[in-house]
Each structure stands twice: as structure tokens, then as C-alpha cells.
Amino acid sequence: MLTDGIRFLSKKLADHFSRNLKLCSVWRRSLHQAHIVGRVKGKLRTMKVDTPEFRGLFTPELNKLIDLFKKHDYELRIAGGAVRDLLMGKQPHDVDFATTATPNQMKEMFELEGIRMINNKGESHGTITARINDKENFEVTTLRIDVRTDGRHAEVQFTKDWELDANRRDLTINAMFLDLDGTLYDYFQGQEDLLERKVRFVGDPASRIQEDYLRILRYFRFYGRIAKSPNDHEEKTLHAIQENGAGLAGISGERIWLEFKKIVCGNFAGNLIKIMHDVGVTQYIGLPEKPNVEEFEEVYSRAHHLDPQPMTYMSALLSKEEEVYQLNKRLKMSNDELKLGTFILQYRGVSMGDSPIRHCQHLFIDNPGKDVKVRALVTELVKYLGDQELVREFSQWSPPPFPVSGYDLVGLGVRKGPRFAKLIHELRQLWKQSDFKMTKEELLEHVDDILK
């Protein structure tokens, strides 16, 4: 019996040694083939997750995806932001998956099983999108490491090592994986940071930032979502941001604007923008030398409950219309956002007089464009001013149709041209001043006087 036990133990040790030897071989091969950027050694923590939000993910389509990966002996786990949201008790809007299967292996598997694949744009970075039962799309990405980075893009190499993939991610709270059996895999204390509402980079902040300078803005965005107080930043993090802020100059305006929109709408936005200015970041994202943070904080305080658009908040940081155009050069905003910014700066200082609702109605009439877009401009201006009752009142107002048409004027012998447009404008002003009560006949009586 003792001899059998020794033999059994010897075999177990031999198997264990063999597995470790193979693992060391893989490591040596990986390190020989590529420089793994800024690697940090993690300490794996696991726990079980079983929440209504997690169970709510399991549609027939997801179950089919899970069965496929099991059948072909590939590991599949939920990755990144969806794990964070589930741990916070939130139902994730988007669920990303990570796998040990390579893109080619996934394509072969899906083709073999008759699963349609769509949108192959992410394939070079390891992402395959599968559409199951013609109902649900699943983005599945091969585990990877960053071989080289230039502060904007990364050259990647595929791996089967979950820790190496976690290591390349930006923040500890975004570097966790969740197995479909509910096992959480946490290499960098992300779950602990989430409980303590801390936002930390994985490993050295400077190294993480230099891999992709947009991570500076992602840090502030997640701080506004996660942190419980406005000034709980680690000194080394702010120092790394200050030392590397200039790297944002090489990031496209569209990517910057996408992140900054979420910062201005998040918690502690005023404090975060102050810090960003103090560490020299705002100069690289199109804001003026002295952004009006005080005005921003006032607008945020009085308007936050009204859920204004990001551009409404951004307008508060600007002092003149020219700064809106300068900001647009950097951020490549939409035409509607540009129009909203100039509209707010043009009218935010204008007194509404004794009848604010009438002032809003007149603004609506005076500004040409599609009714729905002009209404949105006026509504955002009222939100900027923080008047909830006026927002409600204006939303219930339906503008009466202007009673005079171009055909009416042509019928009177007025030729189209500059005088025609001027006449329409003057008639609209008369109609507005009558509180929209003048009839077509009454308005047309003024045509001759206007044309004199």
C-alpha cells in the first residue's frame, strides 16, 4: 500500500513538473518572439458570481454560443466592462467575450457549425462577430498581448494566457474576466478597487498611458462613474498624467470628443476639469487657455437634473463664439453640436424679460431651420439656465403655422429674390409681435408698406 501511494505521488509530481515545464517553454517562446509591453505580475483572485443581472444574460443564443466553444474545447469568458457592470449590480448594455481560440479557429468553427459571421473589421485585432439564430450578435476576441505601441495603436500577438491579456488593459476595474459558470478571475485587485470605489491603472500609470494616451481621458471618465469623492486620486497617477498629457495632441479629435462628452456629464465633472486644467491636459483637447470652470460648475449644479446634452455643458467652458469654432477644429463635432454651442453663447446672456415663455417662442420663430432642430436648440438653452418649469412649459407649446405662404406673395406680384426673403422676414416679425394672432389677410395688408 505504501509503495503504491509513493508511486501515485511520484506520478502526480511528474505530471505537475511536466505541465510547468511546458508552461515555461511557452513563456520563453513568447518572450523571445515579442517584447511584452509593460508587463506587471498579478495575483489571481477568484470568487463566484450569481446575480439576477448575470443570470439575465443567458438567452438561448448565448447558450448556443457557450455550447459551441465547449464542443470545440476553447475557453470563453466575459471580459472587461461587462464584468465591471455586473459586479456593480448593473445590467451591461454591451457584453464582450474573450477566448483562447484564434480568429482562424473561430472562423473554422463557425463555418463548420453554420453560424453566420458579420463585420470583419476587427479581425486583425482578433475580433470575430457571430450572429446566432439571426437574433443576437456576439463579439468574441482572441486573448492578446501588445507587442508594440505608439501611443495610439498597438501591434498585437495572440496568446492563450488570460493574465497576459488582463495585463495589457487600462484600469484594474476593466481587467477582470467572468467565466460563464460564474467564476470571476481577477489578477489586479479590480474587484477590491470596485468595492472601495478606486480607479487605478494596471501596474505603472505612465506605462499604461504611453501605450494609448487616450487612457488619460478614460481615467477621468471612469473616475466620474466609480469614485465616491471628488479628490481621491493617487499622486503617482496625476503625476503620470501631467508628464504624458502632451501625448493627447496625437489623438484624433473624434476619439477625444467621444470620451470628453462622458466626462462633462459624469459625477464631479467640475472638479475633474479643474484637475485636467491644472495638470495641463485641457490645452491638448481644444479648450481655451483659461476655460470658464466657474461657469461650468454653476451650469452643472443647476442643470444636471435636466439631463442636458454634452455640448450644452461644454458651452459653459467657453467665453465667446470664436472659441466654439476653435473647439470644433480640434474635436470635429457634428453640425448640430456646433450650432448648439454658438446658439447658447449667443443667447445665454440675453434677458428673458417679464415673459420667459414668450421669449422662448420668439427665439423659435426668429431662428430658421427645421422645427424639431430649432426646438431642440431653445430647449437646451433653457436647460443651460436651469429652469425646469420653463422646459416643461416650452415642451407643451405647439407653434401655430405661419399663415402667409410664398404663393400668397407671388399672387400679389412679388418676385422671388432678396426683397422676397426680406418681406417674409418682416411679416413673420409682425406676426410674432401680435403673439401669433394676426391673420393672413391682416398680414398681407402690410406688404405694400414693407416694400416701399
Automatic annotation (TrEMBL):
Q: Which GO terms describe its biological process?
A: tRNA 3'-terminal CCA addition
* Pfam hit, one: PolyA_pol
* Alphabetized GO MF terms: metal ion binding; nucleotide binding; nucleotidyltransferase activity; RNA binding
Which InterPro entries did the record assign? Bact_CCA-adding_enz_type3_sf (IPR050264), NT_sf (IPR043519), PolA_pol_head_dom (IPR002646), PolyA_RNA-bd (IPR032828)
Q: Where is the Poly A polymerase head domain?
A: 76-200
Q: Does the keyword Nuclease apply?
A: no
Query: What does the record give as cofactor?
Result: Mg(2+)
Keywords from the named record: Magnesium, Metal-binding, Nucleotide-binding, Nucleotidyltransferase, RNA-binding, Transferase, tRNA processing
Please list the residue ranges annotated as the tRNA nucleotidyltransferase/poly(A) polymerase RNA and SrmB- binding domain: 234-285
Q: Does the keyword RNA-binding apply?
A: yes
Against CDD domains, the record matches this protein to: NT_ClassII-CCAase (cd05398)
What family does the entry list? Belongs to the tRNA nucleotidyltransferase/poly(A) polymerase family.
* Record-given protein name: Uncharacterized protein
